[in-house]
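step=encode ok
step=design start
structure_in=
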């Protein structure tokens, strides 16, 4: 069997109460040690500035103007044009009081201004802090305060959220710069709380009139603080250095050099995944490294197909939910003409992606083998799936585009990482067993330095130099990794959003009709469901007022009661400002409390989540089936 990873150290049994650990695996390109870094770049600023020298007239950033409600063709800025804007924006920040190390927030949808602001941060050793509102209510306020953000670049429609009275941390800001313009009302509000407001053109002009020399960073300097979901509400700030970014890009260089189909300056990427997430940021950095082009979607995800047809990208990246939709639509259309179903699907998928896609990347959550195989066959493109976290600066593992034997896995260890499995005895996972299974631990050049202002959480996550991901993996005989479970009750839905299950159970548990609740979701589904034990007294009152005279156990099988419980859960979700993907979309009602007799809870009444899944599996599958039919 062909090996895709090198075993550089054998596993060992734990000592003094420590868990057992499996062998250390490395990429075959790193079996004798990590390859040397590229001497041309050691920072994110080097990645961009070197490409400006090598490819000044190449198209770099593309966008579509909307005039009178109509979306026009793509307009482009060259690498040299972007570089000039970066110098002006950086100079304006310095003229406004920003110093090396200052934290600069960027808040809004992907667009050229986002990247210009990001590169200006690199030019002057500022720290880029993306602000991402779907982390939950109050996240923007929390991040501005926690990261001590001094200046914020804001998309025009997001300005009102920064100026909202609930965003109390905005008062610490020195200036707000709109991606476009600010209304007079918005300017008045910013002045009123002591913040200087600028339109994009005004800030560019200030930089032009007040030029500053750049102050490039060192490899060990902080490049960005990316905030990601925390289990108990507050986001956690992942500190990534310039070396992390440079190692990511160099590793991708070496990885892709192995394949016949090389990336060129003519490649085009459609950016619609949030730049505040590591996946899109990693891909764009790699495109900039190669002097290639990035075109941004025009802001409407429902009209993404129009951007695809206009841009005709050669690389398309998405989260599993995007590909699931393509698969479902293709399946429905193909069934109407069974004799030509394969050819119909082939033409449909290729056309839907613009007709020129050579490589498809799926990340953010696990892609089901069924959908992956469908994409490989029908897209006429290579499909690459990766596994990684913000903490690992993106891909920790990658599948080989041309290896069908990696189907259903997340591939082999990336070039600048070591991977090792650690025993999880309470879940029965043994890295020295057959097959070897355990918590995935990572170390290497792309691993973050820690959580900003949170040494306790950092110590919990990084032990003996290894970052503990919380994901459970299985090592296949060829060294390829398969994700099989999650150590903590934090899961990703198929669109790549994290869900803290126990937190949601605490929120939904306050609903009067809920006696107890178990929330369930997995990374192959986009919706959450729940098993609810209704409160018997309140249920009986509902039954009486709705003309139902039947025992409690039979009431729990009524569709009307399920709809009522769902409506109550929805009210609770809205009152607590839960995000849309945190809303429960379907329920199973159980008249019996979760008990030890059925093995559903521990002696201290903690839910045994694996046991509960096994117990309710059939009903859960049926519920998801009915939800998918309703949605279709």
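sequence_out=
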């Amino acid at each position: 069997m062909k090996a895709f990873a090198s075993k550089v150290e054998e596993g060992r049994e734990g000592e003094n109460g420590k868990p057992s650990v499996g062998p250390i695996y490395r990429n075959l390109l790193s079996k004798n040690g990590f390859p040397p870094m590229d001497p041309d770049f050691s920072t994110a600023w080097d990645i961009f500035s070197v490409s400006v020298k090598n490819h000044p007239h190449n198209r770099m950033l593309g966008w579509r103007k909307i005039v009178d409600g109509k979306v026009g063709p793509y307009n482009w800025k060259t690498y040299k044009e972007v570089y000039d804007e970066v110098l002006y924006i950086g100079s304006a920040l310095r003229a406004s009081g920003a110093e090396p190390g200052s934290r600069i927030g960027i808040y809004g949808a992907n667009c050229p201004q986002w990247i210009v602001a990001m590169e200006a941060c690199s030019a002057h050793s500022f720290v880029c802090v993306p602000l991402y509102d779907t982390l939950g209510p109050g996240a923007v306020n929390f991040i501005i305060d926690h990261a001590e953000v001094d200046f914020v670049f804001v998309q025009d429609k997001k300005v009102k959220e920064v100026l909202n009275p609930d965003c109390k941390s905005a008062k610490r800001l020195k200036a707000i710069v709109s991606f476009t313009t600010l209304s007079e009302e918005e300017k008045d509000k910013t002045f009123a709380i002591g913040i200087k407001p600028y339109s994009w053109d005004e800030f560019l002009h200030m930089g032009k009139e007040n030029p500053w020399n750049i102050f490039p960073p060192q490899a060990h300097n902080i490049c960005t603080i990316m905030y990601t979901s925390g289990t108990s509400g507050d986001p956690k700030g992942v500190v990534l250095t310039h070396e992390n970014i440079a190692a990511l890009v160099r590793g991708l260089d070496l990885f892709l050099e192995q394949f016949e189909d090389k990336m060129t300056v003519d490649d085009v990427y459609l950016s619609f995944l949030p730049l505040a997430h590591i996946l899109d940021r990693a891909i764009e950095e790699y495109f900039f490294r190669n002097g290639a082009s990035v075109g941004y979607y025009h802001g409407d995800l429902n009209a993404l197909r129009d951007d695809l047809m206009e841009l005709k990208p050669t690389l398309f990246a998405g989260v599993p939910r995007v590909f699931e939709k393509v698969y479902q639509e293709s399946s429905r259309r193909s069934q109407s003409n069974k004799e030509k179903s394969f050819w119909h699907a082939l033409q449909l998928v290729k056309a839907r992606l613009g007709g020129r896609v050579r490589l498809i990347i799926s990340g953010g959550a696990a892609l089901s083998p069924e959908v992956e195989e469908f994409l490989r066959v029908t897209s006429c493109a290579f499909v690459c799936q990766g596994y990684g976290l913000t903490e690992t600066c993106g891909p920790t593992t990658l599948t080989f585009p041309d290896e069908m034997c990696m189907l259903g896995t997340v591939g082999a260890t990336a070039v600048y990482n070591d991977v090792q499995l650690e025993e999880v005895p309470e879940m029965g996972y043994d890295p020295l067993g057959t097959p070897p299974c355990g918590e995935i631990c990572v170390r290497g050049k792309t691993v973050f330095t820690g959580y900003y202002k949170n040494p306790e959480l950092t110590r919990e996550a990084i032990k003996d130099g290894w970052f503990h991901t919380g994901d459970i993996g299985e090592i296949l005989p060829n060294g390829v990794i398969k994700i099989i479970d999650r150590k903590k009750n934090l899961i990703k839905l198929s669109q790549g959003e994290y869900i803290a299950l126990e937190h949601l159970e605490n929120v939904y548990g306050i609903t009067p009709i809920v006696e107890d609740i178990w929330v369930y979701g997995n990374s192959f589904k986009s919706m959450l469901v729940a098993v609810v034990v209704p409160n018997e007294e309140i249920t009986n009152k509902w039954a009486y007022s709705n003309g139902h005279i039947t025992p409690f156990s039979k009431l729990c099988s009524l569709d009307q009661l399920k709809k009522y419980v769902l409506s109550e859960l929805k009210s609770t979700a809205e009152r607590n400002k839960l995000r849309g993907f945190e809303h429960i979309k379907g329920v199973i009602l159980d008249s019996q409390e979760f008990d030890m007799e059925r093995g559903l809870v521990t002696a201290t009444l903690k839910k045994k989540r694996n046991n509960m899944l096994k117990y309710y599996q059939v009903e859960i599958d049926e519920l998801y089936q009915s939800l998918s039919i309703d949605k279709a």
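step=design ok
step=annotate ok -> The chain has a mean pLDDT of 90.
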